[in-house]
Amino acid sequence: MSALLEVRDLHTHFFTRAGVVRAVEGVSFSLARGEILGLVGESGSGKSVTGFSLIGLVDPPGRIVSGSIRFDGQELVGLPQAAMRRLRGARIAMVFQDPAATLNPVLTIGQQMALAVRAHGRASEAAARDLAARTLTRVGIPDAAARLDAYPHEFSGGMRQRVAIATALLHGPELIVADEPTTALDVSIQAQILAEMKKLAKESGTALVWISHDLATVSSLADRVLVMYAGRIVESGGVSETLRAPRHPYTRGLLDSLPATARPGEKLNQIPGSTPSLLALPPGCPFAPRCPRADAACATDPPDVVTGGRLVRCHHPLAVAA
User: Fold this and answer.
1) Do 197 and 300 belong to one domain?
2) Which residues does the UniProt record annotate as the domain ABC transporter (predicted)?
3) Gap between the Cα atoms of 67 and 90, Å rounded
4) pLDDT band, residue 321 (cuts 50/70/90)
5) Residue 318 in domain
6) CA distance 174 to 196
7) Are residues 228 and 255 in the same domain?
8) What is the mean pLDDT of the chain?
9) Which of 310, 184, 157, 312 minimizes the C-alpha distance to 241?
10) Is residue 179 within 8 Å of 48, Cβ to Cβ?
11) How far does the chain reach from its first CA to its final CA, in angstroms?
12) Residue 172: which of 34, 276, 61 has the closest Cα?
């Protein structure tokens, strides 16, 4: 499979009065057509900022300070906004975490979806509404043609999220960046959306970056996973191998924190401490203050250890079980 997206040494910083927030530091990865990549980590790890960087939606005081983002061979860093708008929505789409922030409360669902259709091609009103209704049906909205005349406030939070996902699917984009897109959905609808996404990737070759803190969802959907901490990728590899036998202590801590790992009546496991401020990261490995394996060597930057297609950024990686 050819690489559709190539990210190299990406740095995205926010320049605030308190100092420089290094939200994304040296992130590199590639994504093939039809591949699903999971991006996981705690809140504040840099997942969403990485997604916003990919589609050129980092607002001041933030900006990409260095690095490369190549989409189908075209460099996106520094691309004029007019050219980026032609790509965004048509060939690259994003599903945001909060649908209330993406839907206009004074326009009907049909009006908003028709605007999205016409923004990237000529279509009659009837054709735009027909495409919108068919796409809403794909994401599980019943009586979709009638619901086009409803306003966002007439939908539940989960239904609004399904509308946001449908809008992203309208033009059959080559790349979709999804930021916690199923958080507000119930389990049955979540399963339906995940199945639709996997089908989309398999049949049309759409690549997907799935940003989530839900390791169970990522394990059932993604082909590969990137684990982020403090703006950096600390581990990456095939999703089954990485989540079954993690090598970074942080990845191990995330898995041990899942409620399913605790017995009834027992206290839940947790990673001690809290994520560090990106304004004042400790020297060396940023996870060291919370890591049970940390020692004096962790005061220096950890090396990138690559074995068998897996990467781990750690001085003391966990052994891989036989």
Assistant:
1) yes
2) 5-255
3) 24
4) low
5) no
6) 15
7) yes
8) 90
9) 310
10) yes
11) 30
12) 34
Cα dist from 172 to 91, 201, 204, 228, 234, whole Å: 7, 10, 8, 29, 32
Max CA pair span of the chain: 67
Whether this prediction's pTM lies above 0.85 is answered by yes
Report d(CA 87, CA 229) in Å as an integer. Answer: 30
Give pLDDT tens digits for 100-122. 778 999 999 999 999 999 888 88
Say whether pLDDT at 193 is over 70: yes
How far is Cα 39 from Cα 217, in angstroms, rounded to an integer?
11
Assign 71 to helix, strand or coil.
strand
For 44-81, b where at least 16 C-beta lie within 10 A, e where not — what string? bbbbbbbbbbbbbebeeebebeebebbbbeeebbebee
- Write down the number of H helices and E strands in the chain: 10, 12
Residue 124 corresponds to which tokens in the numbers above? 């009659």
Task: Provide the CATH number for the domain around residue 19.
Answer: 3.40.50.300
Check: CB of residue 12 under 8 Å from CB of residue 58: yes
Residue at which a domain ends, from 170, 198, 221: 170
Question: What residues have CB less than 8 Å from 26, skipping those under 6 apart?
Answer: 9, 10, 11, 67, 232
What are the two backbone dihedrals, phi and then psi, of residue 13, each rounded to the nearest 5 degrees?
Answer: -120, 155
Residue-level pLDDT at 263: 78
* pLDDT at residue 322 is higher than 90: no
Angle formed by the axes of helices 125-138 and 157-169, nearest 10°? 120
Domain boundary among 170, 204, 226: 170
Domain residues for the domain of 152 are 103-170
Lowest mean pLDDT among 109-113, 222-226, 261-265, 298-302: 261-265
